[in-house]
Write a structure and sequence with these properties.
This protein is of the alpha/beta class. It is globular and about 70 Å long. It is built from 13 helices and 23 strands.
Length: about 450
């Protein structure tokens, strides 16, 4: 038996295919990204390779840019109503091998392998009255036609009161265990936004999935999407999942990034112990090839990129890169391989917002030890305004800072030691518009 903390003792770090490839990623492209990660990023903690939505659809992307998810698509399923990889896109899956050959390839690089699924059972299986492994019930008998996604027509929700419902979820996760899956992102489940009066309507499916993972015998990170997660259900998320999205899809615009400060404030007390509220992917580098409108370079300015990574790291969000890794430019690579910044995400704890107004925000977190003993303190200063600003903070306003102690100060982005500061001193920093500074005091 393993605990959630055993599965994800640290917030996961990796790559996800969605931001660049949309629904269209292929086996060759997954391998290329895995190869790059193993050669260039693994030593910094990046180790998950995750295939996002519609890997079972042989025609995915055929109607881009007008249609993202093809209505009534005949994606690939086995005789037991379970999605299997489309062999035209994932050739090694042919002959019933599924994702095992590709997972083996990823594992042989020292990395971990993940997939995306939609909650529920394929509509095509329900309409065909297909079998379910381990039960006499059929797909149509456990499908709930009144529980659907607002934005994707592939699945019906599963009615967990019906006989055979748990057997269905047990069967798909048993298959994923055979393939060697380490991470499963389940969508349309964290916030079922088709039903604003009941955004957590898939609560029983979350429980069924958690039971199925436990039963399959293979540790798997359980990541729930989309957000915003329901804060009133934090207790339930912490009990059954490892990650849950605290925002809807996050893209490269300043208003979306600005909104994340409030979302992190709401969730700051629910981080750790195998529980990782998820700020969503990092839209850095080149994006959008699979969206049918031509790829683009992230619209975030260099300062906004630092702000995003600083907030994600001090909050301890999971980190999932959205670009095509083989095309990663040196400037972005430098952001993603700053060991001193990543250490805040890896090993900091007790992060909290110290203050926030229209112009500025301050967060702090801590290294090993306890505040009373003068442990390491990480301080993030954010300029939320559209102009460069001088941000001033009295250090002893931060819990754990001792007024009588002199602190060595290091700028983690610049990798430079600064002037020492007394704990009762004023810290003043000029920060560019939408920019951030991340300091270590010890």
């Amino acid at each position: 038996m393993y605990s959630k903390n055993d599965v994800a003792p640290l917030p996961p770090m990796g790559w996800n295919s969605y931001d660049y490839y949309n629904t269209m990623v292929t086996e060759q492209e997954v391998k290329a990204n895995a190869d790059y990660m193993a050669a260039n990023l693994k030593e910094y903690g990046w180790n998950y390779i995750v295939i996002d939505i519609q890997w079972s659809d042989p025609d995915a992307g055929a109607q881009n840019p007008d249609v993202q998810y093809i209505p009534f698509s005949h994606f690939c399923i086995d005789e037991y109503s379970r999605q299997i990889p489309a062999p035209n896109r994932f050739p090694s899956s042919a002959g019933g091998k599924g994702f095992k050959p590709l997972a083996d390839y990823v594992h042989n690089l020292g990395l971990k392998f993940g997939i995306h699924i939609m909650r529920g059972i394929p509509r095509i299986a329900a309409h065909s009255h297909s079998k379910i492994l381990g039960t006499e019930a059929r797909a149509d008998q456990i499908a709930n036609p009144f529980s659907i996604s607002r934005w994707n027509g592939d699945m019906y929700g599963v009615d967990c009161t019906k006989e055979g419902a748990q057997a269905y979820y047990d069967s798909i996760f048993a298959l994923y265990a055979e393939w060697g899956v380490d991470y499963v992102k389940v969508d349309d489940i964290c916030n079922t936004n088709m039903y604003p009066h009941n955004p957590y309507s898939a609560e029983k499916e979350i429980e069924a999935i958690a039971r199925a993972i436990e039963k399959c015998g293979r540790p798997m990170v359980l990541s729930l999407s989309p957000g915003p997660a329901v804060i009133e259900k934090a207790w339930h998320l912490e009990k059954y999942a490892n990650m849950w999205r605290i925002t809807d899809d996050f893209w490269d615009t300043w208003p979306l990034l600005l909104a994340m400060f409030e979302r992190c404030e709401v969730w700051q007390k629910h981080v750790g112990g195998g529980n990782w509220p998820d700020c969503d992917m990092l839209p850095l580098g080149k994006l959008g090839k699979g969206w049918g409108r031509g790829e683009w370079y992230t619209k975030f300015t260099p300062d906004e990129q630092k702000t995003m990574l600083t907030l994600w790291c001090i909050f301890r969000s999971p980190l999932m890169i959205g670009t095509d890794l083989p095309q990663l430019d040196e400037e972005t690579k430098a952001l993603l391989t700053n060991k001193e910044v990543l250490a805040v995400q890896r090993f900091g704890h007790g992060a909290s917002q110290i203050m926030r107004d229209e112009k500025q925000c301050v967060w702090a977190s801590y290294g090993a030890g306890c505040p009373a003993k003068g442990m390491t303190v990480y301080v993030a200063l954010f300029n939320l305004s559209d102009e460069a600003e001088e941000l001033t903070l009295r250090l002893c306003d931060i819990e754990g800072i001792q007024a009588e102690k002199t602190y060595a100060v290091r700028d983690l982005w610049q990798k430079q030691d600064m002037f020492p500061l007394q704990g009762d001193a004023l810290l003043s920093q000029k920060i560019p518009a939408h920019g951030a500074v991340l300091l270590r005091l010890q």
